[in-house]
Amino acid sequence: MLAVGVLSSVNVASLTQSEIRDIILGMEISAPSQQRQQIAEIEKQTKEQSQLTATTTRTVNKHGDEIITTTLSNYETQAFSSKTEWRVRAISATNLHLRTNHIYVASDDIKEAGYTYILPKNVLKKFIVISDLRAQISGYIYGSSPADNPQVKEIRCVVMPPQWGTHQSVNLPHTLPNHEYLKDLEPLGWMHTQPNELPQLSPHDITTHARIMSDNPAWDGEKTIVITCSF
C-alpha cells in the first residue's frame, strides 16, 4: 500500500475502506479529489453517530427547582413546538366579553307560523365569556312557554355536558342530562360556538342533531333547534 501511495502521490492514511478494497482488487487510484473528500466526511460522520455522546442540560422551572437532564440521542434534545400558542389564546379569551356589546341575529328565512325563541342576553353573554376563540363549546338549551302563548319558547338555561371540540366541530355525549332543575323545562335543542360565520348549518351540526333526536324521543323535531354563535 505504501508503494501504491508513493506512485500515485496519495497519503495512504487518508484512504477510505472502500478505496483500500478497490486497490486490492486492482483499481487505479488518483490524487485526492472533492468526491473523495466528501466520501471521507460521510464515513466520519457515520462513525461519530455510532458513538453515544452524553449531553447534560441544566434548567430551572417556575418554582425555582433546578433540573439536570442527561441525554444520549439527538431527538431527546429537540424542543417541542405547538402550532397554536395557548398563551395568546388565553389572553385573547379574556376580551370575549367586549364582543357581547354588539350582537347581530340573522333573521333570514323565518317562518311566520313557526315557534319564536327568546334567548336572554345574560345567558348568551355568559355563554360567550366562557368560550374559546378556536375550540368550539356547546350546550343543551332548555326552556318553557308562557301560559298565554304556546308558540313562544323562552330559553331558561344552557346545560353544558362533558365534551371535547376542535375549531371545526364539537362532540357531545349520547346521554342527555337529567336533573331535578330540568323537570319543569322542555328540551329546545342545543347551541355551540364557531370561529367563522357560515351561510348554513355545517354537515356535522345536522348529523349531530339527527343523532340526538334519534337517540332521545323526548326531542320534538318541530321544537328543537340548533343555534350557532360566531365571533
TrEMBL record:
Signal peptide stretch: none
CDD domains: MPN_PRP8
Example GO BP: spliceosomal tri-snRNP complex assembly
Listed GO CC annotations: catalytic step 2 spliceosome; U5 snRNP
Domain called MPN: residue spans: 116-231
Residues forming coiled coils: none
A Pfam cross-reference name: JAB
GO molecular function: metallopeptidase activity; pre-mRNA intronic binding; U1 snRNA binding; U2 snRNA binding; U5 snRNA binding; U6 snRNA binding
Ranges annotated as spanning the membrane: none
Domain of life: Eukaryota
Protein's name in the database: MPN domain-containing protein
Organism in which the protein naturally occurs: Notodromas monacha
Lineage: Eukaryota, Metazoa, Ecdysozoa, Arthropoda, Crustacea
